Every structure is written in C-alpha cells, then in structure tokens.
Amino acid sequence: MLRLFDSSWGKTDGFAYAVDRSGALQAADDFFRHRLREFGPFEDAMAAGEYTLYHSTLSIYLNNGLLGPQELCDRAMEELGNGNAPLNSVEGYIRQMIGWREYIRNYYEAMMPAVRHANTFGFKKALPRSFWTAESEMKCVRECVSAVLETGYSHHIARLMVLCNYSNLTETDPRELLKWFHFGYLDAWQWVVLPNVLGMGTFADGGVLASKPYVASGNYINKMSNYCADCAYSVSKKTGPKACPFNYLYWNFVDRQQDAFEESGRVSFMLNLLRKKPDEEMAEIRDSSRRYLDSLERYEL
Ligand SMILES: Cc1cc2nc3c(=O)[nH]c(=O)nc-3n(C[C@H](O)[C@H](O)[C@H](O)COP(=O)(O)OP(=O)(O)OC[C@H]3O[C@@H](n4cnc5c(N)ncnc54)[C@H](O)[C@@H]3O)c2cc1C
Ligand code: SF4
C-alpha cells in the first residue's frame, strides 16, 4: 500500500470524533435528540455526499468502551417514552444493538479461530484498485469508498450492499477485503469486523451467519440511493459497455455459484430465474462479465 501512497492512507482533515467519555456522551446526545426519530424509516437509505444520514455513528465508542450498549438502549427507550421518537425507530435501533451486535459477539466466540480462513467460494484475487483510491466510474463505489477514506466510517448498507457486494461480484478474496476493513474503519475491532465481513458480507463462511449471499444487481442500489442518476453507467442497461456492472456481474455470480444458491431456500428462486434466461442473454452476461473482470485493475497489498 505504501507503494501507492507516499505517506499513509486516509484523511484526517476535519477530524470530528470524540476522544473521551464526555465527548462520546455528547455525540450520543446529539444522535438521540436529532437523528433517532428518522432512524427507522431511513436506516437502509444512501445519499450522495451524506455519509451519516440518521445513523448514530456510535459504534466506535461502543467498541472502545467509552459508551455501553445498555445505557444507549435505555436512552432510546426514554426517547420513546417522551414521545421524541416513534416506535419503529426505537425498535430498529435496539434491534441493531441487542440483535445484531450481541449475535455477532456470540458468533465470534463460537467460530474462532477456524473462521479466520473462511473462503467458501475460493476467490483468490486482490481488491479492485478503487477500494484504495476511491477513483471509479461507478458512482456508488466512489461514494462509499470516499466515505471511508474521509471519515473512517460508512453505515451498514454501504458496507454490505455496495462494498461487500462489489468485492464478491468481482470474485475478490474475502480475506483481502477483511484487511481493507481493518485499515479503513475506525470501529473495526476484530470480534465485530470479522463476522460481519466473512459471515454476513461475503458469505465466506458458507452460510453459518447469514442464510443467503448478500449480492444484488444495480436495481437494489438504485432503489436505496440517489447514486445512479449521476453515474457513468446506466442502471437500466443489462449488458454491454454502458451497462451498470452490478447488473451483469450479479447474474454471472449466480451462474458461477449455483451450488450456494441451490442450498439456500431463501434464494433458490434466483436460480429458477437464471435458468429461464435465454442462451443468448446468458452469453451476453458472461461476455460483459469476462470483459469487465479481465480489465479490472487490482491492487495487491
Ligand atoms: C461488512 C460489514 C462490516 C462491518 N464492520 C463493522 C465493524 O468493524 N465494527 C462495527 O462495530 N460494526 C461493523 N459492522 C456493523 C455495522 O455496519 C456498524 O456497526 C454500523 O454501521 C456502525 O455505524 P453506527 O454506529 O452509525 O450504527 P447504527 O446504524 O446507528 O446502529 C446502531 C448500533 O448497532 C450496532 N450494530 C448494527 N449492526 C451491527 C452488526 N452487523 N454487527 C455489530 N454491531 C452492529 C452497532 O454497535 C451500531 O452502533 C459491519 C457491517 C458490515 C455489513
Ligand atoms: S448505475 Fe450501477 S454502478 Fe452506477 S451508481 Fe448505480 S448501481 Fe452503482
């Protein structure tokens, strides 16, 4: 990496994180007063230039011990009681904390150390160069990597449905992606980042954590964000040089990883759709994917 960047990676201009307990409490207060209300309706949304939206950005303080999960859940309940936040937002927030966070901790305890080497699809390639530079014709990739470079943060849908999705669809070694998450995110503690990347994000553990691979075409990103309106690629085009790469890479992935889809009842319908595609369309999907993957610049750590 140091060969690519003359000093270190990432930016510190505008550093605005708390560094002690009182600053962390202020950050929490700011979230509960101003953003919790809209957390429920917008927790899966992404918007250009808006890295935080209605998220708490408190994971770093939870992981480094400046804040505790119980006090944050209690405060969320207080906001419900005061009428300052609706039930769907409070429920959504507490579900993330005691559903996902606690589940992830237990998974880590149960699955380590063997899961460190998980790579169910056997992908061996290095990360696309855009993960390191944020330079990409793909608006969604540019935005989501820029968030990490500039702030050491992005929210869960950017992590899952853009960055992990792109890594998997480009057949990248998930352990290389895990290293990148460690470099990039301020909240990357091994017990939480590893299950999220190797379990949820890339399905590298073969489906122990998640019941399906979280891969998607451009349609999903278009539904959840305003990125596609300002992208060099067209989200409505399925194949060819101007088509959104997520569109053909998605079907290419389903085609090449049929076993994983076969075993998951939740997504076996995708296989049925794949098998109904005419041969001509499949040939175009495979051709666009091969061209894209062959020309993709990657960067070896
Ligand atoms: C690929 C991938 C990598 C991730 N890496 C990390 C990581 O390194 N460190 C980390 O703390 N979280 C990680 N997460 C989980 C989640 O994305 C972050 O906790 C969340 O985005 C942090 O931002 P926030 O505090 O604004 O969260 P909010 O959206 O405000 O959510 C509230 C809290 O719920 C907890 N939470 C929600 N989802 C999860 C989850 N899947 N696992 C654990 N806690 C969760 C966090 O503590 C978070 O602060 C990852 C998720 C994915 C899909
Ligand atoms: S068109 Fe495709 S590549 Fe461009 S922003 Fe949308 S999903 Fe991303």
Please describe what this structure looks like.
By secondary structure, the chain is mostly helical. It folds into 2 domains: 21-111, Serine Threonine Protein Phosphatase 5, Tetratricopeptide repeat (Alpha Horseshoe), CATH 1.25.40.80; 118-301, DNA Cyclobutane Dipyrimidine Photolyase, subunit A, domain 3 (Orthogonal Bundle), CATH 1.10.579. 56% of the residues lie in helices and 1% in strands. It has helices at residues 21-34, 36-42, 59-64, 69-81, 87-111, 130-133, 139-151, 156-169, 174-184, 190-201, 218-224, 245-256, 258-263, 268-276, 279-295; strands at 127-128, 298-299. The protein has a two-stranded antiparallel ribbon. α5 crosses α10. The longest helix has 25 residues, at 87-111. It is globular. The termini are close together. It binds flavin-adenine dinucleotide (FAD) and iron/sulfur cluster. Flavin-adenine dinucleotide binds at residues 55-59, 62-63, 93, 96-97, 100-101, 104, 155-156, 159-160, 164, 181, 185, 187-188, 192-193, 196-197, 200-201. Iron/sulfur cluster (SF4) is lined by residues 138-140, 218, 221-222, 227-228, 231, 233, 235, 244-246.
